[in-house]
Automatic annotation (TrEMBL):
Keywords: Heme, Iron, Metal-binding, Monooxygenase, Oxidoreductase, Signal. This is Cytochrome P450. Its cofactor is heme. GO terms for molecular function: heme binding; iron ion binding; monooxygenase activity; oxidoreductase activity, acting on paired donors, with incorporation or reduction of molecular oxygen. Belongs to the cytochrome P450 family. Transmembrane segments: none annotated. InterPro entries: Cyt_P450 (IPR001128), Cyt_P450_CS (IPR017972), Cyt_P450_E_grp-I (IPR002401), Cyt_P450_sf (IPR036396), Cytochrome_P450_fung (IPR050364). The lineage of its organism: Eukaryota, Fungi, Dikarya, Ascomycota, Pezizomycotina. Heme binds at C412.
């Protein structure tokens, strides 16, 4: 910073009045350009985007200083233009991750944290294991549908945790996609050309579309709550987050509960399915790591499916999952915080209302912390000598605390669920199948590594691959595991309907 206090400025690209620097900032793969600027201007630089002030941070220590140590006034969110009241300033209470730092956010964060912690402590009532068994079976009978059935697996887990009903998954996934698109800069034009949002309704297709999307989503969430209430009255609702609300409230009422729970169901779909897809790609491209994971699983589990209790004995699997998330982060731009007070960083002034963007792509491509950053190198978590190695391997590597989950008071609440669901899903898949390139007309069908959308949570473009059962015996196990789980679940539902309302925790898998 070149000037005296108060007039000091952060480095950054030259700005045009109001427009800032958007003309050469592509909407697609924006994180790559932001990282390029970091390489030119340093680990904290300033830019403007159509009136918004943005500080881009690419050094973890600076993110820690601004977003953790100064969390008290750096934990607000910028408004998303193409959603109505995204910050819940007017009490719409719909989107916890997007809310400003207000009382609705505090209440829902507490409630969500308690619900997710209880579920983790009770091993998700066996729901993940149950759905993983279903997914393996689907891979056996319709392997080419894997790209969609893995989204469905994640959605079914969330729909069962929230409403005890996996059959809701298809609509849940559609709604998750709708919201994700609506909130992303690469979504509707009005998120970038924000003044367009204020056009009168009759010439404003963006606002009309959003009114429709929101009505559909809110109506569906309300229906889920009412349906769950009537199932509970009839003794047919097993343990789930809606039942938890209906039995001991702790939220302000049905409107808030319906959206807090509905949002939770949406947020666990693509966040988990995308890294699972990248894991499959990593295994196809790095068969020697697949073989190491399979050897570890065979040694620890033999012919049975892994459980969460096996985790300490599976460091190679954990390393491959963590390395996937480092190599192909699924929220590469990071999620911005907004400042609530004027502040300084060194001599440089940060006006109230500045967005601080912790650029995850850059943290995870830091060659000092991650030598050979562009390569998939799980050994960086397993062998001493690498900067990221940590012992004991019964505990490390762990996903918890990765920069990808964000910072300070806004840090992701789904870290344990992500870790546990990815362990069970990725582990079970490697246990059951060899993951390979497809061969067509004698040639390998490519699995491209750098094709994805550019939404806030990205996922790879559809690709093809082969799931080959590791042996006929393993294929039979996959089938019998699913048939038994399905039958147990059917009996449990009958028992609950027959008056055994206490039944419902565990036993599904
Ligand atoms: C790989 C998986 C995931 C990644 C990379 C991820 C990443 C993030 C990030 C970057 C944030 C914002 C942090 C910040 O502002 O500093 C966040 C917030 C959040 N995440 Fe996740 N997430 C993942 C999975 C999940 C799952 C599975 C759930 C729950 C089912 C979840 C629930 C939430 C919630 C509720 C918030 C909002 C917290 C708040 O605003 O106070 N996330 N996540």
């Amino acid at each position: 910073c070149r000037f005296r206090r108060k007039v000091s400025r952060f480095p950054g690209p030259t700005q045009l009045p109001w427009l800032g620097r958007v003309h050469d900032l592509p909407i697609r793969f924006m994180w790559l350009k932001l990282k390029e600027w970091a390489d030119e201007y340093g680990p904290i630089y300033y830019t403007e985007m159509l009136g918004a002030k943005v500080l881009v941070v690419t050094d973890e220590k600076i993110a820690e200083e601004l977003l953790v140590k100064r969390a008290k006034f750096n934990s607000d969110r910028p408004a998303v233009r193409s959603l109505f009241d995204s910050k819940s300033t007017d009490g719409s209470m719909s989107y916890l991750p997007l809310m400003g730092k207000n009382k609705y956010w505090a209440r829902q964060r507490r409630w969500t944290h308690a619900s997710l912690t209880e579920a983790a402590n009770l091993q998700y009532y066996d729901i993940i294991t149950f759905e993983v068994k279903r997914w393996l079976f689907r891979l056996l009978v319709e392997p080419d549908a894997f790209y969609d059935t893995i989204d469905d697996l994640a959605s079914k887990v969330m729909c069962t945790l929230t409403w005890d009903d996996p059959d809701l998954s298809e609509t849940n996934t559609k709604l998750a996609w709708g919201l994700l698109t609506q909130m992303s800069p690469a979504g509707p034009l009005t998120n970038v050309l924000t003044p367009l949002w204020h056009l009168p309704l009759w010439v404003n297709p963006w606002k009309r579309a959003e009114l429709q999307r929101q009505a559909l989503q809110d109506g569906w969430w309300d229906q889920r709550l009412q349906e769950s209430r009537s199932k509970l009255r009839q003794g047919r609702l097993r343990h789930c987050w809606t039942r938890q609300y209906l039995e001991n409230a702790k939220l302000s009422g049905d409107r808030e509960a319906a959206s807090c729970i509905g949002m939770l169901a949406l947020v666990g779909v693509f966040t988990i399915a995308a890294p699972a897809k990248y894991f499959l790609m990593a295994m196809v491209h790095h068969p020697h790591w697949l073989m190491r994971v399979q050897a570890e699983l065979d040694r620890v589990c033999g012919d049975r499916l892994l459980t969460l209790e096996d985790s300490p004995a599976l460091p190679t699997l954990r390393a491959c999952i963590k390395e996937t998330m480092r190599w192909k982060p699924n929220v590469p731009s990071g999620v911005a915080h907004e400042t609530e007070a004027d502040d300084y960083y060194g001599d440089c002034f940060i006006p109230k209302g500045t967005r601080i963007l912790p650029l995850d792509w850059a943290f995870l491509r830091n060659p000092a912390k991650y030598p050979d950053p562009d390569s998939f190198r799980p050994e960086r978590w397993l062998e001493s000598g690498w900067p990221t190695y940590e012992a004991p391997l019964t505990q490390f590597p762990t996903l918890k605390g990765m920069s990808s989950f964000g910072w300070g008071q806004r840090a992701c609440l789904g870290q344990m669920l992500t870790q546990d669901e990815l362990l069970l899903t990725c582990g079970a898949t490697c246990w059951a199948f060899n993951l390979k390139f497809k061969v067509r007309n004698g040639a390998r069908v490519p699995v491209p590594l750098n094709k994805s959308n550019s939404l806030l949570i990205i996922k790879p473009d559809p690709f093809e691959m082969e799931f080959e059962p590791r042996s006929p015996a393993r294929a039979r196990l996959v089938e019998s595991n699913w048939r038994t789980a399905e039958e147990t679940d059917r009996r449990m539902r009958l028992a609950v309907a027959g008056g055994g309302v206490g039944v419902g925790i565990g036993g599904r898998g």
